[in-house]
Amino acid sequence: MFGYSKIKIGLISAVMAIGLFLALPNFLPKSMYDRLPYGMREWFRPVTLGLDLQGGSYLLMEVDTDDLVREKLASLSDLTRSALREGKIRFSGLTVIDGKMQVKILNAAQVATARDIIRKQDNVPLDIVTEGSTLMIAYAPEALEQMKRQAVTQSIDIVRRRIDELGTKEPQIQQQGIDRIVIQLPGVQDPSEIKALMGKTAKMTFHLVDEETTPQAAQMGKLSPDSMLMTGDETGYIVLKRSVVVGGESLEDARQTYDESGAPAVSFSFKSMGAKKFANATRENVGRRLAIVLDGKVISAPAINTPITGGRGIITGNFTVQSANDLALLLRSGALPAPLIVAEERVVGPGLGEDSIKAGTMACVVGLIAVFALMILIYGFFGVLADITLLANGILLLALLSLLGATLTLPGLAGIALTIAMAVDANILILERMKEEMAAGITVPVEVMKRGFSGSFSAILDGQLTTLFAALFLFWLGSGPVRGFGVTLGLGLATTMFAAIFVNKLLLMAWVAVKKPKKINL
User: Fold this and answer.
1) How high is the pLDDT of residue 72?
2) Which runs of consecutive H residues, i.e. helices, occur in 380-409?
3) How many C-beta neighbours within 10 Å does residue 165 have?
4) I need a surface site. Which of 17, 117, 187, 460 has the fewest CB within 10 A?
């Protein structure tokens, strides 16, 4: 009947059963849901409510690209210093000021050669201006633009890793403008811990200590260009070699642990290449001190007693368990390319979210009741079947949102409401087409239903496709809540097609099989 085989009937029933099962977490009491196995809760989960529905924190972070440029220029100056020396070019006054590097070439005949050498030190375009025998070097505008884009993209990835490790549910992280990142944290009413973690670049490097230069001499200006003066809580002022023995990008893992005295510490392990570098450096410098530098501050500078060949080490200091855990998290997630500055901060109270949920829920309930009543009033028993189809559509939509781990926002609720309207429209087209067939003289119930579905299919498909294109454009071009509206609308259109064409037809088939009517009253 209707061309439905037992296999097709079984598949439709299976889809509805699976949908009902996946939607079930949304109706379970929290106390019952929390008793489910953890592994099951990873995929068997309710729809997560967004910031506007359950409250939370909103942070607008700005990537400090000026600091990034200063760091890049500082690195370029180190490379330039070594390259000019290798090229036997005498120079002085190599400094970085106001986003530019400048150097004075003492022999005017070597200025052109020095320019060529400097250009080879970086693989991005440089603007080099010559003022007498002084060279002013800055990154070209296109290089700065590319540098900023990469910094923001990398920062978003690292921010997401840091926040996800904190266990924050469904954070919304996206770029805004050229150099800003929006972070929405549903359910988080105190973002102080997250702000503290986001404000740390977590750039860790290992440097050998310059044993030949005292901190006092360095403070008086007697400092080799290959060395730098730094400070730390435990070490005070200390002179380190500029060259990096191994950087934090070579880290593979970091965990909170305890040292030999039972104090909190951080253990770390290197990737294969980093382990080799670390082993070679410690093997060649037994007896010297190796400093661990984090974000420009020396954490500790222990002596190398024996070569460390296992690729593992431990960072000790004045840690608490929490601070050691935080440092381990930062090192695991990677270093930010540039500091993040809080440009804006808002906390949305849960009361506002509750009001939004109540208002949105009330709107959906009132709309559903009105639609259900109107369908029954106009179409009688067939209106009841259409209402059951609407419920099936809602269950399938809820199941898809739960399965995808989607975050439901207030615009998402609007998308669901619009989906209900589209689903009603599909059912009305089918029923009205059945009326037209009956008016044309078709009286056999099965034939009326068959023609009703086949005749209305093109109109339903056209309506769904045009709306689907709008949903796709909203998802593609929009951001935040606009994308949420597009997602719920797009998924709702898919479930509407399935419910209207397959579930509705299956219900009508079951009615015909049980009642065996001689005619249809519409």
Assistant:
1) 85
2) 381-404
3) 15
4) 17
Helix (H) or strand (E) holding 91: strand 91-97
Which residues does residue 300 pair with via DSSP β-bridges, in sequence order? 292
**101-150 confidence digits (pLDDT tens):** 999 999 888 988 998 998 888 777 888 888 888 999 998 888 888 888 88
What's the one-letter identity of residue 126?
L
Structural tokens at position 237: 């002022």
Determine the Cα–Cα distance for residues 414 and 387; give it in Å rounded to an integer: 20
* Single-letter code of the amino acid located at 485: F
Q: Per the structure block, which two tokens stand in for 470?
A: 């709008």
- Burial per residue of 88-98, b for 16 or more beta-carbon CB atoms within 10 angstroms, e otherwise: ebebeebebee
The rounded distance, in Å, linking the Cα atoms of 359 and 363 is 6
DSSP 491: H
Min mean pLDDT across 163-177, 182-196, 391-405, 424-438 is at 163-177
Nearest alpha-carbon partner for 357 in 408, 426, 286: 408
* CA–CA gap between residue 32 and residue 37 (Å, rounded): 11
- Please give the residue that has the higher pLDDT: either 456 or 318: 456
Q: Is residue 136 within 8 Å of 118, Cβ to Cβ?
A: no
Mapped onto helix, strand or coil, the DSSP state of residue 443 is: coil
pLDDT tens per residue, range 241-274: 888 888 877 888 888 898 888 888 888 888 888 8
For residue range 198-241, what is the model confidence (pLDDT) as tens digits?
A: 777 878 888 999 988 888 988 888 888 788 899 988 888 999 98
CA atoms within 13 A on the CB side of 341: 9
Mean pLDDT for the chain?
84
Query: Which pLDDT value is given to residue 240?
Result: 92
In the beta sheet, which residues pair with residue 3?
none
DSSP 18-75: HHHHHHGGGTS-HHHHTTS-HHHHTTS-PPEE-HHHH-EEEEEEEE-HHHHHHHHHHH
With beta carbons less than 8 A apart as the criterion, state whether 279 and 309 touch. Answer: yes
- In angstroms, the CA 333 to CA 313 distance is 18
* Structure confidence at residue 352 (pLDDT): 54
The answer to whether 36 touches 175, Cβ cutoff 8 Å, is: no
How many angstroms separate the CA atoms of 364 and 369, rounded? Answer: 9
Report the C-alpha gap between 295 and 428 in whole angstroms.
65
Identity of the residue numbered 283: R
Beta-strand runs (E) in 216-263 = 227-232, 236-241, 246-247, 251-258
- Give the pLDDT confidence score for residue 148 in this predicted structure: 85
What burial class does residue 207 get, using C-beta atoms within 10 Å of its C-beta: 0-12 exposed, 13-18 middle, 19+ buried?
buried
In our burial notation (b when 16+ CB lie closer than 10 A, e otherwise), range 288-317 reads: bbbbbbbbeebbbbeebeeebeebebebbb
Share of the chain above pLDDT 90, in %: 12
Q: In the structure encoding, which two tokens stand for residue 85, read together?
A: 């020396």
Q: Say yes or no to pLDDT of 346 above 60.
A: yes
Per-residue pLDDT at 309 exceeds 90 = no
